[in-house]
Write a structure and sequence with these properties.
Number of helices: 1
Largest sheet: none
Oligomer: single chain
Shape: flat
Structural class: mainly alpha
Helix content: 55-70%
Strand content: under 5%
Number of strands: 0
């Protein structure tokens, strides 16, 4: 069996929307909340970046 025959192992998801959380401990729930807050911050930063780009494009086309 060659080394390249194996599929790369996928990283387990920290949280999946709608996932059953009833069996998670308080610590696991806090970890997921922290991970989701970090993801929200990342998404908001990207949204802000896109807003700046959109505003610049709109300003450029208004001049034409």
């Amino acid at each position: 069996m060659a080394l390249f025959d194996e599929e790369p192992k996928k990283k387990p998801k920290v949280h999946e929307i709608g996932q059953d959380i009833s069996l998670l401990s308080v610590g696991e729930l806090n970890e997921r909340i922290a991970a989701l807050h970090a993801e929200i911050e990342r998404l908001e930063a990207e949204l802000g970046s896109k807003s700046v780009t959109k505003s610049a494009a709109e300003a450029l086309f208004r001049r034409s």
